[in-house]
Amino acid sequence: MIGRFRKPKPKPTCTPADISARPSLVKLDGRMKEAVETGRGRLVFGGMLFAGVFVVLVGRLAWLTVPASLVSEPSMARGDGGSARGFAPAMERRTITDRNGTMIATNLRMASLYADTRQIGNPDETANRLLTVLPDLPREELVGRLGSGKSFVWLKRNLTPRQQYEINRLGLPGLMFQDEERRLYPLGPLAVHVVGYTDIDRRGISGIEQTLDEELRDTAKAGEPLELALDLRVQHALRDEIGRSVEYFDAIGGGGLVLDINTGEVLGLVSLPDFDPIRPGTASDEARFNRITLGVYEMGSTMKTINTAMVLENGNAKINSSYDASRPIVVGRFTIKDDHAKNRWLTVPEIYKYSSNIGSAKMAVEAGPAVQRAFLDRLGLLKKAQIELPEVGAPLVPRNWKTVETMTISFGHGLSISPLQLGVATAAIANGGILRPATLLKRPEGVAVPGTRVVRPDVSDLMRKLMYLVVDEGTGKQAAVDGYLVGGKTGTSEKVGAHGGYMRKKLMTSFVGVFPLNKPRYLVIGVLDEPKGRKETYGFATAGWNSAPTVGRVISRIAPILGVEPVDDNSPQVQQVMSLGVHAPQSEKKIASN
Amino acid sequence: MINVSRTDTSMVGAWWWTVDRWLLAALAALIFVGCVLGLAASPAVATRIGASSMHFVERQIVFLVPAVLVMFAMSLLAPEVIRRVALVLLPLFVLMMVLTLFMGVEVKGAHRWLYLGGLSVQPSEFVKPLFAVVAGWLFAEQKAGRGVPGYLLSTVAYAVIIGILFRQPDIGMAIVVTAVWLVQFFIAGLPIILVLIGAALAVGGLAGAYTLLPHVAARIDKFMGDGKENYQVERAMEAFAAGGVFGRGPGEGSVKSVLPDAHTDFIFAVAGEEFGMWLCLVIIGLFAFVVLRGFARLLTENNLFVLIAGAGLLTQFGLQAVINIGVNLHLLPTKGMTLPFISYGGSSLLALALGMGMMLALTRRRPESGGPA
Where in the sequence numbering do the catalytic residues of A fall? Predict the structure, then answer.
């Protein structure tokens, strides 16, 4: 080793003789020394700063690298960084399940074929040989891609293991595989209008997949499924029954909704026609259209539930008030008539039961446009519904809201809303008076769901009895289900033609049902778009003949699934509970049963 | 062992006994690591851009020989000679910087390079160390009180250089030049109040760059927006995670095949993936050693010029390393900054050799340098 170099002692910068000769130098030397001292002090400070920064760099480096080494398998999974979980393949998008944990959407690891075309000598030959395994690829396009000279071109996404094996066996240079996860929906179209779908790069472009895209990609929650409020058993029964009715009544479409009225959870949501989310490209616009949340319609007489609740809440009418429905109302060029005209004075329950437009309009006029507008706004009918879907339609609200509009809105014309909005508003009226926005996500059990009061509990109580009346002896009789107390309201409206004006033959029928009335819990909506009359329905195509029985069948199927205990609906106790305490003249009952 | 007699009074003999051999060894180690990582990272980049796989390696070696010679030659010189060399070369390279504005080659939207006889040269790389030396001299002159307005002159020179850098534009370089100049001013005894004002101005300058220069704003926005937006940084993060402590093994890395700047700005991430944390620690350790050892040598210095110029050169070297590594580790927003001696780049290598050669010269033991014997 070389010994440490010892340098000679520094020479004094100036000798005493110099100092005496040039006094100015003393000052200079002193100043210089002081400057060097300052410089050294500050250099130490700079050095410490640098040392600190280097320590930070080392800390960050350890932070990035050490946790990854603690995992047995070095993981290159995207974005998985230091949080790789053992050997389990990292799911890049969370699974979606229903409220009971049944899988609706998941991922499957599949290989995708791409080419580095710089390694391909003869695109024609490569294409020919590749076509022996993948005969569906368009040849000319394939040759064009293979000859593009690019370092990365997709050839075919999501191969089966067999296809991958066969392509490997071809031994063609330049062809490579990339593992991808494909989003799969094992139940096909069952919940497509709720869950939506993703594009080939697994970005949500519809439904929950789009709205909660970030949430679903959240790597911190990977492995933890996203639980929907949906109950697939309910969803299946709903889709099955709506589909059957669409077919039976030769409707162009239909929809259904099942809500938990105490939590706002959507247990079932169906819009028909629908499609398989794995092939959204092949679906028609009609199939992709969500009639429950995106479509807005003049809902017809189902709006009378809201109208009646409004006048009862506002004190414009008591339950035994009566209105003259003996002749149609003529307002300007409109004439308001009743479909099931009684041509006499009707009490509030009768107006609701017989679905009297004249009576409803007169009730609404007593409240007036301002009260009506405020009430509908409170029920959320004048703005877009709140739900975790991108496909939400804005209601069509009249610009000029005067007495005429008040009259028509009272029986469901002149205001277009989505069936979802109607369901949420009716749920609030039936559940004791608390409005809760609908949600597609499972609510934690045992946690009270906040809401806003929209009607008094006594009004809600009366409204449930009125709904029972409709099913017990009014237009909704076919919705009755043995053993369950069902209430509801029918609605039939003529659709607006392309050039304005109502089309007499093109109907939109709906039924909003609530059950069990002794312990109100669920709301079911059934909607049919342009149902036709049948021999069995004596040619009628109104809601009481198609939507009402559809909802009745849905309830008879889902009530046992949901654990609703049956009751004897003819027992005196039940009759007592559901009685309005208003005595309609005996003769009325006869007319009703005719 | 090299046998140089202690009584050898030749230039080289004297050099060997006076130069800081620890610094020399650290720099040699950095150059060696650079060669290894160059071999690891650059073939992937070269094949991707269609060049022969050894394209960047060959070019780097072509530059390495003159670089080592320049470093050695500079380290032989006495401080006064270093000062004179810098004074002569600085105006020359500043002039070349001006030329880039008119006849420079546009690369990625900036005019920073000049083509000289088939070689592309980035004059600003050379201006950095040269200006550090000249500024050190000017600051020292101010203190010497011989009537040279050192503060004023260095401020004017600084303003000219920064002006050109902003025109190119090359904000990363401007930041380094500014930081180095401020550190030197600080060491030269800038009153503390002015230091604080300077710090405020720096923050203001950054804010100004953010508001006035869209490409700077875009970079910073990307960084602030959880960083996931930046492709290269995201890949770099994966590389460190994949490498872990011991790495995936030489040649086993995959980040180099997707990162456009794997051989330059992101070579540290390649090191992290293929060799793991330990090599990264070695690299950080080497940079820290050079900077701190250099500072320690300067602490024994009695010559104010040597003190300030040396500190400037080391600060420039260390700062570049810190910024580059900081970007790779996603501690700083992406800024085109090479890792000294390790990243690929001819101009950068030669300029670093020039700067470090001067640094070695300034930290040599000299009879008049003073300090503890």
Answer: 301
